[in-house]
Each structure stands twice: as structure tokens, then as C-alpha cells.
UniProtKB/TrEMBL annotation:
One of its GO terms (molecular function) is exonuclease activity. Keywords: Exonuclease, Hydrolase, Nuclease. Pfam families: Exo_endo_phos (PF03372), Methyltransf_23 (PF13489). This is Exonuclease III. InterPro entries: Endo/exonu/phosph_ase_sf, Endo/exonuclease/phosphatase, SAM-dependent_MTases_sf.
Amino acid sequence: MRLASINLNKRLGNPAARAELTAWLYHHRVDVLIAQEPWKPLHRTPIDLAGFRPVAGDGDLFCWIAERFATPPTSRPDRFAQRLELAWLVIYNTYLDSGSTTTRSSQLDQLQKIITAEQGRPTIACGDFNIAPRPIDGLHNGQASNFNNSTDRAPLSALLADLNLVDSTATDPPQFTIERQHAGAPSQFRCDLALVPAHLHPAITVRYDHTTRKGEQSFTDHSGILIDAPVTLPPATDEEQETLFALLPEPIDESLYTRSDYQPHKTAMTRAHSSPFARTVVDVIAPQLGIATILDHGCGRGSDVHHYRASGLDADGWDPHPGFGQAIEPERQYDLVTNIFVLNVLPDPWQRIQAIQHAARFVRPGGHLFVVTRSPADIDPRAISANWRTHHDGYWSSEAKGTFQKGIPTEEIIALGHQAGLRPTTQQIPLKTSPTAGQALLVKPT
């Protein structure tokens, strides 16, 4: 999915600006457009863009989606922020006050509360923040501007640190997103920002496009932000498609948007014996850490649970699929919880975060979570060989069955663990490495 964010400086009512914007969207193959200050007056009738469906908003914040996709859920938690739900990813279209550092400070405090309420769901906040995050990001006549100061920069820094977000377009030297003459001198600012979760930053590409404000095809005075995220948007409904084909600039390949139901339980293997990693638990981890109680989280048919019990451990299993007979949640916490080949069959980052948060609930303070996944070295060659179709950040391993696979390396497991308050253990446990698996032993703070 490609998302564009632009402050349109209230110019969309101009037919020439609207035509240039439409051409720009088509040229860059944009799927979702979020805009700040699209038009005036504030509550005028929404403006149509060829090939796009108006979704929601007003003259402060508005969004459109390409007509081949379903209309996403939206809400307005505050006047300065619009929430879009794009499959597993939440976007906050943001436009902070342009006149007061105190107001921006208050809005940033509120934005932090709003994003915190997402409970770890992957969230990007982007738009016109009217803040140059660093002094070098805001210059007047070549010197640091006094438009921003610690009053609004401090809460922005706190938001980034507390929510583990990255100012994804911060470079040295900075790329300015607005350049004007003010009081007879040049004024340059990088105030159009995209704040991205740190654990997803490697998978999400963010860049500026300055042609929106420079050159013959310019249509605003702000640079645009282009964000590429591994999101597969759902296709338009039958009702939404009634006007689709007349407006699309190119034919649609409907096979790219196949609707499939996820069936992760169908990846569970029937084993006569325990998995190799269950044997690692019994032979290495349990003796080293003095493990007495263990939960196999996502146990499938339970062969590993039988192995743990046969080895003298007090072991339980849990799996959300009712057909495996282990769907009742335990009522206690454990020395060790295992999560083996579960995360890699879950079809998006939000479901993986929820799974690891759920597993962490059953780890006692000071206890451990042992996570094992299929690695990219295992999954990617199989996907290429079998021509698996991409979906979100992985692949449909079988669209007929509704099964998904993604290769997850060790560092990604650790990043997911951070979302559940877990950290890599500092104890030296000699885990046997495998090129086909990612694995991490995480500890729950006391």
C-alpha cells in the first residue's frame, strides 16, 4: 500500500490545482491520500478526485481511497487528528495548531494518550505538525527560528520516546518541506512528519516528494510524504464497485485482491514425536533456568505438551482453535511459556503483537517466553519456488486453505517482545542455532 500525506494549503477548490494533484496521485500510484487543509470553507461539500472515493473529514483533515479498495473505518478522536484503520495498520492524519506553542504542546500530550489507547496496535502519525523537531529543521534567514521551542518540542520528544516511534524523515542536513519568504528573509521548515513504530521502521519506506511545491506541476506549498507499508487493502465491495471501472485510469486485476479467510490452525503439523525445539526446552532451557512449570502457547495437537509431561515438567497447553481441545485459558502463570511456529502463520503485525501480549500474560514475573519462528531463509525461497502470492508482509502459502507464512528473524521476535514488555534474557543459554528458524528467549521483568 502506498499512502500520501500532503498539506494542500486550502487549494483544492482551484480546478488547476485539483488537476495537478490528480495527475500526481496517478503518477505515484497512490492508494490512500490524507490531506491537511484541503479546502475552504471548513465544512464545504467534499471534493471528488478522479479514481478516488471520498472517505471522511472536513477542511482541516480529509482522506480519500482509490476506488478499487473498500472504504476504511474512520473516526475523529480530536479536531487535530483523524483516525484511519487500514487493515492491520492505524493512521492518524494530523494537523497541529499553527499559532501557539502552548496549544501544540497540549495537542501532543493528547495525541500520546490517543495512540497509547491503541494498546500496541501498529500506528503511524503523519501530517503537518507545525513543529520543526530539531533546531536545524527550522531556519529563518539561515539561523534557528524561534517559531518552535522547548514548549512544543519537549512533548514531541516524549511522544517519540514513550511510544517507541521514529521521526522517519529526519536527516542531516534536513530536507525542508516548506520554504517561504517571511519578513523579507527566507524561512525553511521541516514540519511535515511521519512518526513510525520503531519495530516496523525497517519494513516501511518513507520519503518526501518536493515536486508538489516545486516546478510547473506544483499544486501546494508543502512537500508531500509518500509511505510504502506492507499492507494488503481489502477490495471494494460489490456496491462500491458499481462506479469503479468507469473511473479507473487502468484495468484492474481482480485476482490481486482475492478475499480469503485466515485458517492458521491448518498449518499445525501432526507429529508422532515432539518438535526439535521442545527437546531444546527439556534438554537445555529447563535445566539451565530451573523450570518447573511450562505452558505451550499455541500448542496445536499437543505433541510437545506430552513430551514436557513425560520429562517430568508440570505442563499445560493452550490453543485458540476449538478443534484441538485446548481452548480454555489457564488460570495460572508459569516459569516458562513457549510459542513455537505460531507468529509466522499469523497474517499481520498486529495479530503477532496480540499473540505475544497474550502469551506474556501467562509468564510469571521473572519468568521466560521462548519464541521460535520460521526464518526468512526458510520461507522466502519456498515462496519463490511455489509462486506464493504476497499478502501484507508475507505470503499466502495456500489461498485455498487460507494459510499464511512469513519468515521472522530473531531481531524481529525481540522487537515484538518489546511490545509486550519483554526483554531478551541476559543469561547465557546455549541455544542451538538453525538457519531455518528465528528464536529468542525473553524475560518478563519482576
